[in-house]
Amino acid sequence: DTGVSQDPRHKITKRGQNVTFRCDPISEHNRLYWYRQTLGQGPEFLTYFQNEAQLEKSRLLSDRFSAERPKGSFSTLEIQRTEQGDSAMYLCASSLRGKETQYFGPGTRLLVL
Amino acid sequence: DQQVKQNSPSLSVQEGRISILNCDYTNSMFDYFLWYKKYPAEGPTFLISISSIKDKNEDGRFTVFLNKSAKHLSLHIVPSQPGDSAVYFCAAGWDNFNKFYFGSGTKLNVKP
Question: What is the pLDDT of residue A71?
Answer without folding.
Answer: 86
